[in-house]
Amino acid sequence: MSEGCNAIYPTNDVQPEKTMKRVFDVVVIGAGPAGEIAGGRLAERGGKRVAIVESHLVGGECSFYACMPSKALLRPQEVLAEATRVPGAAEAVSVRVDAAAALRRRDRIVNDLDDANQLPWLEARNLELVRGHGRLDGERRVRVADDLLIAREAVVIAVGSGAATPRVPGLAEAGAWSNREITTTNEIPNSLIVLGGGVVGVEMAQAWRSLGSEVTVIEAMQRLLPREGPFAGAELEEAFEVHGIDVRTGVEAARVTRRDSSITVELEGGVRIAGERLLVAVGRKPLPTDLGLETIGLEPGSYLEVDERLRVRGLDWLYAVGDVNGRSLLTHSGKYQARLAADHILGEEVRARGDGAGAPRVVFTDPGVAAVGHTLASADAAGIAAEAIDLATGGTAGASFHGRGARGTTRFVVDLERELLIGATFVGPEVADLLQAATVAVVGRVPLQTLAHAIAPFPARSELWLKFIEAYERRRDQHGLAGSLHTDLSGPVAVAA
Amino acid sequence: MSEGCNAIYPTNDVQPEKTMKRVFDVVVIGAGPAGEIAGGRLAERGGKRVAIVESHLVGGECSFYACMPSKALLRPQEVLAEATRVPGAAEAVSVRVDAAAALRRRDRIVNDLDDANQLPWLEARNLELVRGHGRLDGERRVRVADDLLIAREAVVIAVGSGAATPRVPGLAEAGAWSNREITTTNEIPNSLIVLGGGVVGVEMAQAWRSLGSEVTVIEAMQRLLPREGPFAGAELEEAFEVHGIDVRTGVEAARVTRRDSSITVELEGGVRIAGERLLVAVGRKPLPTDLGLETIGLEPGSYLEVDERLRVRGLDWLYAVGDVNGRSLLTHSGKYQARLAADHILGEEVRARGDGAGAPRVVFTDPGVAAVGHTLASADAAGIAAEAIDLATGGTAGASFHGRGARGTTRFVVDLERELLIGATFVGPEVADLLQAATVAVVGRVPLQTLAHAIAPFPARSELWLKFIEAYERRRDQHGLAGSLHTDLSGPVAVAA
Questions:
Q1: Whether residue B114 sits in one domain with residue B31
Q2: Does A97 contact B89 at a Cβ distance shorter than 8 Å?
């Protein structure tokens, strides 16, 4: 907050009419990644005067309670596991993560929950940070405690999402952790029960297992990571067994009881699992409560539906970006939406198309799961005649050196009619950065006949692309399609001569 | 070799006319990766009867003396270096590679120089392996010792390349190593001199430094990796200094002398460098000598010039794939060419376009260098108005966890007129698999306006793509181009809804 602001509106001003009205071009509610990007882009590209309202920490859930601390906790185990797969390096490593060092690193990543490091970014862009809870107060008006912020042009809502809590008897009273507690604690419980086998659940299960806890994961669906291709969850579960993580799928928690420092989860069917701590990671819930939506005739409590311009209900002044619109609850999708919303406010025509259910997604476990676009199931649901090309992620010469011996499947999903790649899922060690090539191919609709000319370097794991092309060619031959993929002569290929 | 073959032509047949004539559809000379792929594809896709001639080891230079053993030697150092960058893992590792274990792993990778493991692949495809030196003997005829192989359709030459030796007085008598000796030795010399700072030179320098040798690299050009963007060699040199590798650039070797177990390289200017061993890694030389080229009216001794169908001199029966044609001396380029040549022999129209000078290339050092397409210099030479977007490879949130704190630049080269990515170079730790996304974008000519919708996952290092788009947008704004990259509304974008 600027000094001037404090000087003009002293907070000890208690006169009857105490509303302080300030005018901006745009008011952004929520200073997580999506809000920051929206505000920053408006200021930087458009020279707009922007206020950004934050009730908790600038940087948001992602920086302090999700993506960032979780990766600080997962990476040591990931790289040590990889080192033990490399003869010549394996002899030089202990497989034990140094828990204290990992936790210290996590503390540094989240800056001990102080957002001071985030502020220079806002300041450099002249964003006016308003601390407090932002609430709509009619069209283009945002109230933050006694402040009334007027938005000449637009209001952008970017308040994120919260951890969902399932209705399980006893859970509310059990003192369970959410992502917020588990990503910030210094406690390494002897035993941890994780309710939910989605991304947060499996990441935290592995992180805390690597730090020394006994971990049990309970997932109501038939497998871990139920939204991904079925092999992903199955292969992760297999790896979890090797790591000594107890996985229970296809079963719901029926009751939770707490006695002293022990929490017991009773499963349907009567099995009881006891642990020192319980993490609830069953998904996210919409956060647009207490946002003053009713002052503009909207219902609170559900995700804010937006159009392709990220506008709420087609209103020309109200945008919602990030988790709050429910399109794709991922930091990178929120950042993408923020860019587009900002550009639209700046008068450009945009259409969000990269952030659907098929937006890129990475689970940073070991093996990791990285996926983009369609799974076979989602292609089927979309009425696309698709086929899966399944490969062993470790089936390249490159995998003799990187990810050696690790199991995991890579699936390419092909639209047979158009001969296009419409999705890919990589399961294996350190697969996060294998994904971008698939994203470019899918989003760019690069024909398979062109991909056949995109040579993968030897011996790198990217030769999965060559294996994919070869396997698809065999499928093609079986289908009786004439010619090879190379017969594309005019396609756009441009490697320097 | 099939039993039947031996039975029909017993090798103890010593009659005056001892030539044994056998007829195939295609004869491939050279069973390295390119020859294997060409032969295998002809047999598998086309049902052709193929002979493959090999004078040394099936699997070729790549499998036994280049790509594969070098990676076995480099990977331990790479992964240990990465582990030491990760708090929580760093405490669990020693930075010393276990040299004996690394050498044993190398031995296993090259199967103790026995190609037995390569044979089942040939057998599964019914390729007839003919051991011996293959030599053309007129059109569609290949002589291997006393065998005459008749190729009904085509001959494919895939004999690779050899290590070049510069003309330096004393070098020939100094008992220097080439890539063959250094990739297979079990000796860890106290001191190693590497003549040549190209790919082989820098990879072997780092590998043997990590195994314990004192290493000096001598490069005549002004920098290491002279074919890549200048920052690549400079950044690698900087890292080499940290590793304790002595790098001398811009200076030629004037004389080499050997006394007992010590080799001295005298540089121009008089500086002398002594070492126990000397590796010559100044590049490759063409191998089409003693190939019988004169029997079809061709000059021996230089790379075999081919057209886009990989045909030598437009002859309809003679193909050259891999290093021997000099297009791009890389295993993956050879494999690509082999696929195309095979398809052309099978009657399909093809055009090799992915394997030019801009073909993907990776140097597996730490930091590694991975590049595709144009450098700024090659774009300039090609008359393309290009601009470089330079980023810190470590400048993403993902790099807080992977490659943390390591230096290195990522350069995206953009054709300003067409707004296309025409090249990319990544310098940093473990960058090999970052490359494929760039290759797909370059080869697929994916417009930047579409790339702006190819969301990179957070927090992965692939967010370099977001940083690239953002930086290019700023450049674009400076150039006064209207609109943002998002204004592409009709472009091909297809993430599952």
A1: yes
A2: yes
Domain count, chain B: 3
With contacts defined as CB-CB under 8 Å, which chain A residues touch B426?
Answer: none
Q: What chain A residue is nearest to B447 in terms of C-alpha separation? A: A444
Residue B336 forms contact with A (CB below 8 Å)? yes
Of A72, A433, A454, the CB nearest to B439: A454
| ipTM score | 0.94
pLDDT digits (tens, 9 = 90+) for B304-346: 999 999 999 889 999 999 999 999 999 999 999 999 999 999 9
Structural domain span for residue B260: 179-282
Of the partner residues B88, B462, B483, the one whose CB lies closest to the CB of residue A97: B88
CB-CB under 8 Å, B423 with A440: no
Contact residues, chain A, for B455 at CB < 8 Å: 332-333, 336, 354-355, 359-360, 439
The 3-class secondary structure across chain A, one letter per residue, is CCHHHHHHCCCCCCCCCCCEEEEEEEEEECCCHHHHHHHHHHHHHHCCCEEEEECCCCCHHHHHHCHHHHHHHHHHHHHHHHHHCCCCCHHHECCCCCHHHHHHHHHHHCHHHCHHHHHHHHHHCCCEEEECCEEECCCCEEEECCEEEEEEEEEEECCCEEECCCCCCCCCCCCCECHHHHHHCCCCCCEEEEECCCHHHHHHHHHHHHHCCEEEEEECCCCCCCCCCHHHHHHHHHHHHHHCCEEEECCCEEEEEEECCEEEEEECCCCEEEECEEEECCCEEECCCCCCHHHHCCCCCCCCCECCCCEECCCCCEEECHHHHCCCCCHHHHHHHHHHHHHHHCCCCCCCCCCCCCCCEEECCCCEEEEEECCHHHHHHCCCCEEEEEEECCCCCHHHCCCCCCCCEEEEEEECCCCEEEEEEEEECCCHHHHHHHHHHHHCCCEHHHHCCCCCCCCCHHHHHHHHHHHHHHHHHHCCCCCCHHHCCCCCCCCCC
**Is the minimum CB–CB distance between A413 and chain B shorter than 8 Å?**
no
> The CATH number of the domain where B223 resides is what?
3.50.50.60
Q: Identify the domain boundary among B341, B358, B375.
A: B358
> Do A264 and A389 reside in the same domain of the chain?
no
Task: Give residue-wise pLDDT tens across range A354-406.
Answer: 898 899 999 999 999 999 999 999 999 999 999 999 999 999 999 999 999 99
Measured between CB atoms, which of A343, A359, A382 is closest to B484?
Answer: A343
